[in-house]
Design brief:
With 59 residues, the protein is α+β, with helices and mostly antiparallel strands. It has 1 helix and 4 strands; from the N terminus they run E-E-H-E-E. The radius of gyration is 13 Å and the shape is elongated.
Amino acid sequence: MAVGHSGTALGVLLDAADPAYPHRATAVAQECGDLAGSVAVYRTLNFPNAVNHAGRTVG
């Protein structure tokens, strides 16, 4: 997970290949909603055949 902000925007990056992704995405959206009152979820680029730091193919 990586978190960043710019002014009034907060961004959270999650690994969709993580088995806990569905739970984490839901939990993060709920927590951000508690902070801001509204949440927009965007899925960004996917890199087919990318390799993570553990050497596992992801994407």
